[in-house]
Design a protein that fits this description.
By secondary structure, this protein is mainly alpha-helical. It has 2 domains: 65 residues, no CATH class; 224 residues, MetI-like fold (Orthogonal Bundle), CATH 1.10.3720. It contains 15 helices and 8 strands. It has a 3-stranded antiparallel β-sheet.
């Protein structure tokens, strides 16, 4: 007869287990009800047509086909029906290829600008399949290609979101420089730390309103400083209503608002570097750059990796500040992917479609995070590991 080698559970053990499960019950139930449950529900809803007001209607992969529907077509040059010649746009005039020499280089009497001639291409709507809208076009080897999407607004929002992520490397570099400076024995360093960290504790809505004033084209601080510095034309820029300027403006604001938190994390990382490593480097005759590159930076790679991952996850969820400051404009130049999801869900009541978009965004974030973890093996060094 087999005898169990495990001793019977004592009354005290059962008592401790009961209280252990009781203490984890609240966060566990909170996770199931407020996180895991909605997560599963949104996945199911992504395959339905659901407007909140009526029961969900199963549509299969229709939402996903709408989201992922992309096509690439060529944009041919327009041809004159009578002569068969290619058409060009010279200033505001439509010109035959044989007449370009008469226009190019002349001064347009209406605009006072020198005319340049460019090929007049076929309209995007004439070459895209039904249901597709133009997203962007690019010229390769003399041929113009047009990328169309069934949901061009979503893909433009995704492009804008990725573009705004350029704030991350800029912010990390500046935060590291500030942390190195504020780690020195300088007068008033504690005050500087507080000042740089202050934007982190301010409400995002308040920060957006402050920067709305800074970017005001008429009496904003930025344009005033630019004009005072002699950049008169640049000092008249309408930063939030110019398609070329709005994304750099949002990047600048993002760098400013996130700099303090990243600086503080870097400062903690620098102060955690063992002093004996610097002493050993000094004995070997290392200068300040050699000590930074061979001691400080390897020790800070886990900190950099942490800030990189968390900043990218937050960056892909960028919503509040562009929503308050530009509402996605001008056009859709500053619209982020989360703004598109929000509008589909709460303005248009397309909950099923918005759920599919949210899952697409979540998949992108997970994929990029996994890639970062795989690449981290090449450049992130933890204490006790070799640096080779």
């Amino acid at each position: 007869m087999a005898v169990s080698s495990q001793p019977p559970r004592s009354r005290l053990g059962r008592y401790e287990a009961f209280w252990g499960y009781l203490f984890i019950a609240a966060p566990l139930l909170g996770f199931i009800i407020f996180a895991a449950g909605p997560l599963v529900a949104s996945l199911v809803l992504s395959f339905t047509d659901y407007d909140i007001l009526t029961p969900p209607r199963w549509v299969g992969t229709q939402n996903w086909q709408e989201i992922l529907g992309l096509t690439v077509v060529t944009l041919p040059q327009q041809v004159d029906d009578e002569s068969g010649e290619f058409l060009f746009r010279c200033g505001r005039e439509t010109v035959l290829q044989s007449e370009i020499a008469d226009y190019e280089g002349r001064v347009d009497e209406r605009t006072r600008q020198v005319m340049t001639c460019a090929p007049l291409l076929v309209r995007a709507t004439d070459v895209l399949p039904d249901g597709y809208a133009p997203w962007f076009d690019v010229e390769l080897s003399g041929t113009r290609y047009l990328v169309g999407a069934r949901d061009a607004i979503l893909w433009e929002g995704l492009f804008n979101t990725v573009f705004l992520l350029l704030a991350i490397p800029i912010s990390l570099a500046l935060a590291l420089i500030l942390a190195l400076a504020l780690n020195q024995q300088i007068a008033g360093k504690n005050l500087f730390r507080v000042v740089y960290y202050l934007p982190t504790i301010l409400p995002l809505a308040a920060i957006a309103l402050v920067w709305l004033w800074i970017y005001n084209p008429d009496f904003g601080l930025l344009n005033y400083l630019l004009r005072e510095a002699g950049f008169t034309s640049l000092g008249r820029t309408n930063w939030l209503q110019d398609r070329e300027a709005v994304k750099p403006a949002l990047i600048l604001m993002g760098v400013w608002s996130g700099l303090g938190y990243q600086m503080l994390i870097y400062l903690a990382g620098i102060q955690g570097v063992p002093r004996q490593l610097y002493e050993a480097a000094e004995i070997d005759g290392a200068g300040w750059w050699a000590k930074f590159w061979n001691v400080t930076w390897p020790a800070l790679t886990p900190t950099t990796f942490f800030l990189l991952i968390t900043s990218m996850i937050a960056g892909f969820q960028n919503f509040l500040q562009p929503y308050i400051m530009t509402s996605g404009g001008p056009g859709n130049a500053s619209r982020t992917v989360v703004m598109t999801i929000y509008d589909n869900a709460f303005r248009d009541l397309q909950m099923g479609y918005a759920s599919a978009q949210a899952w697409m965004l979540g998949t992108i974030i997970i994929a990029i995070t996994v890639v970062n973890f795989l690449l981290a093996r090449r450049w992130v060094f933890y204490e006790g590991e070799g640096l080779s």
